[in-house]
Amino acid sequence: MPRDSALTSSDVRGSTLTIVCAPGTGRYAVARLLEQHVDARLTDLLGMLAACPKAGSPGVYDRCEETYEGLAAV
Length: 74
Description:
This protein is an alpha+beta fold. The protein has two helices and three strands, in the order ββααβ. The longest helix has 9 residues.
C-alpha cells in the first residue's frame, strides 16, 4: 500500500520495472530491487536507476525526462 501517497517497489504488480530515458532504456527485476533497496519509493528509485548525466542538472529545461514505462501498480 502506498505510504505518504507515494508508490513503492512492493506496489508494482509486474515482475520487471522499465525506465525510459533519452540515453536509453533499462529493465529491472522487481524482486531484485526489493532485495537491494528494500521498499523504496518509486520516485527515489527513478533518480538512482536512470543514471542520466542530465538528472542533476540545475536548469529546468535541461533536466532528464526519465519515466517509468507501462507501470502496473496498485
